[in-house]
Specification:
single chain; 809 residues; alpha+beta; Beta-galactosidase, Chain A, domain 5; eight-stranded mixed sheet; eight-stranded antiparallel sheet; 27 strands; 31% helix; 18% strand; globular; binds 2-acetamido-2-deoxy-beta-D-glucopyranose
């Protein structure tokens, strides 16, 4: 995840090749009618030139297509891998993490189902409709309290006046992934304050893929019947709600695209009288509204309006499930849910052993929710990225493909991010290796022939709607940390140990992809000096950032060289590649492949002497560069509407170390490259524990408090992002390294152990404290107060707190 991605506007390159100056026609010697002796020559020349031009044209087309050419290697996830025949358990799920509650299948054109709600009889006109997770809704908190990623989930959504509970459970049967049911309850917090609320439950097709028809009894919507190529025939039962004095209505209509459901619902509402005195108006859906020129309805909503509390159930039944014993509702639903809860609780303790570590029930429930919201945040997306290479004048479409992935934040980043996903799968694989293998397989299949994987995946209309179109384009020069090697290290060992046929097939497809992926980093991201590496995509021409962003590194505004050039060398990237080479050597060895070159690269890049020579900045020898003046402005100009502050360079830049102690400086330690005996380890431990540098009572801050970059704005508008706040993925890596050094005999073993214990306690206690205080798990934490900051809920890598509690590294 890279927040500033949204502000990064890729420049379209101006290319001169196609407009190069040809010979001026007035000088053309054959232009004036001298004929014969030359005619043949001309003919041949034309032929030669034409074929040369065709050749050039083809070659240019080839160059333009490289970026969108899939890697020629067997895929890990086959076309039928997610189908209900091959993988029925995971066919249905809460795969729309951007909604408060939404279900869909893992078919590329799956119909979708979901919940909206709206408070009635208020003075807001029209009252806000809840549907997509939105920080602006100001909820007091929402989180999956339990979710196993496959078969059931229980979520609590806290509004100011009432609580919404969404529970779902699945039942296997038939040949289309079986049935599922959802129970949705609205409970007022204070029963003496009456709340009138409308709940909306809908079924929608993705365009014209399939059929939907309402089943009406006495003009009440009783169910929706449908059919779809991947789902067969199905029915969504919408039973009568348990409540008195309710009103019902419905909408049967058509939506061009799935991102329009909310707007169409609002447009399909009229005002009606709530009470017999006709003094109170409320909003009610208008019935059948199907435009003439469409094949039929594809969007059907049932609205129930009532005074809280009330509970409703929706029951999805697959027609191919012929021998169903019971409808999945009422007591059948309740007892199956109870069974799943028990299984979840047992498995949670078996996996993470938090009882054994003497955490309280309250803390364990927090950890269950953190894990569950990551699992409940797994989505299934289908579509293509917009990408661009130096050969494309305009962005081009990547091939269409599915992506099964967790997301960093349901409201704010509800899509796949490459480096986040490696961290996510540390936790996911601890819970369910099959889910992780599936996720990593999907990502690896998105690799192009160069070994590049676009780092932000914005697939399908629902995902696109969240990102302005000019920010969608991904560039093949820009990498992102290869964090999948973190979970793969253990996953691959386990696969080899299990010795299952399906795992062998998986590894056979995975390995060549990993090789190509590694090679992409090792060749395209290298620096000018041998064995140095550099993040690409820093824009030397930007004027509105004091220090041009390094989005590829994932640490957007973390200070780097003030003037991006190809002479930069980035120690974090070097360490990522050293680490990846080590894992590759391991994998290759266990698979009986050539491992020597990876081992050699790993050794070379981990060579502490070489590392020191290239990257160690000796204290006291720092060259200071004059600071840019505070907030210089554009010259005033009545035609210049762009009044943002820009950077001004006051003196010629010189090559030097960027002396900003922080997460990047720690990388040789974080990825365990520093030798256990190295005195550098001592310096690092000293800097980590210094409250004037990185230590806080809540975790390690991203930049030393004594750095000139600490807490500084990089642009006029963007508050410090990786310049002070505490990030949990980096604290996880740090704890993992401390643990490593505390287990190996060496001069700093005891020190590492005590730092480990203090840091672990600080991180865990603060995240729990903030969760209880605010209702949320946060994107990062303030280094002075420990307060949660940024987007929320953020149960991407902040959920690694579960592994920290469990001491699983
Ligand atoms: C899935 O597809 C593969 C390759 O196309 C095929 O070999 C396999 O039999 C298919 N599996 C099922 C259950 O259809
Ligand atoms: C990585 O690149 C270096 C050259 O920069 C090369 O010497 C080394 O063999 C490469 N490693 C692998 C595993 O390909």
């Amino acid at each position: 995840m890279s927040k500033n991605e949204l502000r990064h506007r890729p420049k379209t390159k101006q290319r001169g090749a196609l407009t190069s100056n040809g010979p001026d026609s007035s000088n053309w010697p054959y232009a004036h009618g001298r004929m014969d002796p030359y005619a043949k020559v001309i003919g041949i020349s034309v032929l030669v030139i034409t074929s040369a031009l065709i050749g050039i044209f083809r070659y240019q087309q080839y160059l333009r297509d490289i970026v969108i050419t899939p890697l020629d290697s067997p895929r890990i996830i086959l076309d039928n891998s997610s189908s209900p025949d091959v993988n029925p358990e995971k066919f249905w799920g809460t795969y729309r993490p951007h909604t408060y509650f939404g279900m869909k299948s893992r078919h590329k054109t799956s119909p979708v189902f979901g919940l909206m709600w709206m408070i009635q009889l208020t003075n807001r006109m029209p009252p806000p409709l809840r549907h997509w997770c939105n920080q602006g809704d100001g909820l007091e908190g929402y989180i999956w309290q339990m979710h196993d990623g496959v078969s059931f989930g229980i979520q609590e959504i806290r509004e100011k006046l009432y609580t919404v509970k969404t529970e779902f459970v699945k039942q296997a049967g038939g040949s289309h992934g079986g049935d599922w049911s959802a129970r949705i309850s609205f409970v007022p917090k204070d029963p003496s304050t009456p709340v009138v609320l409308s709940s909306f439950f809908y079924a929608a097709l993705d365009g014209d893929n399939g059929k939907l028809e309402p089943v009406l009894v006495n003009n009440r919507l009783r169910s929706v019947r449908g059919s779809h190529e991947g789902l067969g025939d199905f029915e969504l039962l919408l039973p009568k709600v348990e409540s008195s004095g309710q009103k019902e209505s419905y909408l049967v209509t058509y939506a061009n695209q799935l991102d329009q459901l909310e707007d169409i619902s609002i447009a399909g509402m009229g005002v009606e009288a709530w009470d017999s005195a006709r003094t109170l108006p409320y909003f009610s859906l208008a019935g059948r509204r199907v435009p003439k020129d469409v094949p039929g309805p594809n969007y059907i909503v049932k609205q129930v309006t009532t005074t809280l509390p009330f509970t409703m159930e929706v029951v999805f039944q697959s027609a191919s499930f012929a021998d169903r014993q019971n409808q999945l509702s009422g007591n059948v639903f309740s007892s199956l849910l109870e069974q799943r809860k028990k299984e979840f609780n047992d498995r949670f303790e078996e996996t993470f052993r938090l009882n054994e570590k003497e955490y309280s029930e309250r803390e364990i429930n927090f950890a269950k929710a953190a894990l569950s919201n990551m699992l409940g945040g797994i989505g299934y997306f289908y579509g293509s990225s917009l990408v661009q290479s130096s050969y494309n004048r305009e962005p081009v479409s990547y091939w269409e493909a599915p992506l099964y992935t967790a997301v960093p934040s349901r409201p704010f980043f509800p899509r796949g991010f490459l480096w986040d996903e490696g961290f996510h799968n540390l936790l996911i694989s601890a819970w369910d290796q099959e889910i992780s293998k599936d996720i990593i397989g999907h990502w690896m299949d998105l690799m192009n022939t160069e070994g590049w994987i676009p780092r932000e995946q914005i697939l399908g209309p629902e995902a696109r709607k969240k990102v302005p179109s000019e920010f969608v384009v991904q560039r093949n020069t820009n990498a992102n940390p290869p964090t999948f090697f973190l979970p793969l290290q253990r996953l691959i060992k386990n696969m080899i140990k299990s010795n299952k046929q399906e795992d062998k097939v998986y590894l056979t497809a995975l390995y060549p992809r990993l090789k190509t992926w590694f090679n992409y980093y090792n060749t395209s991201q290298n620096g000018k000096l041998p064995f140095t590496y550099r993040w690409h995509g820093r824009d030397p021409t930007v004027t509105k950032q004091l220090n041009p962003l390094t989005l590829a590194s994932g640490l957007d505004d973390y200070p780097r060289a003030s003037h991006p050039t190809d002479e930069e060398r980035h120690v974090d990237l070097r360490c990522w590649i050293a680490f990846a080479a080590g894992v590759m050597a391991d994998i290759a060895r266990t698979l009986g492949q050539d491992w020597q070159e990876y081992e050699a690269t790993h050794k070379l890049l981990s060579d502490n002497k070489l590392l020191d020579k290239l990257h160690w900045s000796p204290k006291g020898q720092q060259l200071e560069k004059p600071k840019p003046p505070p907030n210089p402005k554009h010259p005033h100009n009545s035609f210049n509407m762009d009044m943002d502050k820009i950077r001004v360079v006051l003196s010629e830049p010189t090559l030097q170390f960027v002396n900003a102690l922080g997460y990047v400086s720690l990388f040789p330690f974080l990825l365990r490259i520093v030798d256990v005996e190295s005195p550098k380890l001592n310096y690092i431990l000293r800097d980590i524990t210094d409250p004037n540098k990185l230590w806080t009572d809540y975790g390690l801050r991203s930049i030393s408090r004594s750095s000139k970059f600490y807490g500084r704005y990089n642009t006029e508008h963007d508050p410090p992002y990786w310049r002070g706040p505490i990030w949990i993925n980096m604290n996880y890596l740090c704890l993992s390294a401390l643990r490593h050094y505390s287990l190996l005999p060496g001069p700093y073993q005891d020190k590492a152990k005590s730092v480990y214990e203090d840091l672990r306690k600080n991180v865990v206690q603060n995240i729990i404290k903030e969760y209880e205080r605010t209702g949320y798990i946060w994107e990062n934490y303030h280094d002075k107060t420990g307060e949660g900051k940024g987007s929320h809920p953020f149960t991407g890598w902040s959920a690694l707190v579960v592994l920290i509690m469990a001491e699983k590294y």
